[in-house]
Request: fold
Amino acid sequence: MNLFSIDDLIFKNKTVLVRVDLNTSYNKSTRKIEDHERLREHSKTISELSEKKAKVVVLAHQGRKGSPDFTHLDQHAILLSKHIGKKVFFVKDIIGIKAKNRIKSMKNGEIIILDNVRLIDEEVENKTGIEHSKGKLVTNLFPLADIFVNDAFSVAHRSHASTVGFTQVLPSVAGRIMVREWASISKMESETCSIPPVVYVLGGNKPDDCLKIIEYLFKDGTRPIQTVLTCGVIGELFLMAKGNKLGPATYEYFKGEKYLILLERIKSVLKHYSKFIQIPDDIAFGDAGRKDISVNSLPAEGLIMDIGEQTIKKYFKILKKANCVVAKGTPGAYEEKGFEKGTKGLLEIIADLDAFTLIGGGDTNQAIKKFSIDKKKFSYVSLAGGAFITALSGEKLPAIEALKESKKKHKSKAHALSRFYK
Ligand code: 3PG
Reply:
């Protein structure tokens, strides 16, 4: 089912609650937030609604209570204003009288951003849409609004008040980013990617995420044949599962990070599906400069930091024939001098492919920026982390489900707000 989008409703003179994801890095000591592509992209949706003469009330979060990046959204308002080229007013309140009065006094086209929705404890409770629709956030704000727009794909894996609550009580549509991200990720399950070879390049330092995707890919044998190219931590864990000794530095690091508990599951994947899974032939390590060694020469004398050149060549040959490619996580510690090769090499190869190429994960995004690779060369680069993984692992995204359900539930109300109702 297609989601309702901004094109389906008329926004003029309407009060619109728009959930975006402005979550970015925050430096607690300097009290500075980092500008992020998410802010630039969501600005376009917010700006469009304002141009359509809606009264735009932005809902967003930054960090989580207890985490060092948890803060107010005053600086986000300044950055949004800069990107939109129009004042975005920050209201240091969410559901109190100050916020309510400010919403009631809004003019057409005006934009305000309420404070961090995660200041309300209930926001992050994992509840159903119906439960959340009876909570503080929704019951206080929905009577003041006409439409809910959810543009925050990167929080779509959370069943939070602001992601699933409003869809119960307001005509709800997906914003531009939500539509784009969902359509691109859904392509992996569509005809486009039903023709093999479909190649997954999985790396980075969240091996549990990679393993979830791998287990899903081979779960019931009904999906097209996939090839998985492992690198980063998951690649090293596959080497270990095959009996290689990585060396004391990597072993201790993995132990500290609790990665070793994944070994049994990896062994089970290897037992059944090893012919679909590629693991590195060589790796790079070194405290005083990069040293490449074949996996036959393991253990390494230092912490493993990258895949080796032979592995890049082997993966290149496989990628060249691919029809669809998904890449998540970086092959190596690309931020460290001397260990850029794997990440830069594979991303450049993928960028030049004619295949459908889908890229995800925060670090991968950073690496694309660092190596000045033209983003437009990829079919799609997702702004999401956790939501991207959840979708690729075959799990439902509560916020997407909520939008679908709302489409059925609010058809008649949406009809009243729509000129071209389909
Ligand atoms: C993200 O940055 O990936 C999203 O904002 C979700 O954040 P969360 O993992 O704290 O829910």
Notes: The radius of gyration is 23 Å. The chain has a mean pLDDT of 94. Residues 21, 23, 64, 154-155, 158, 385-386 surround 3-phosphoglyceric acid (CB under 6 Å). The chain has two domains: 6-178+397-411, 190-383.
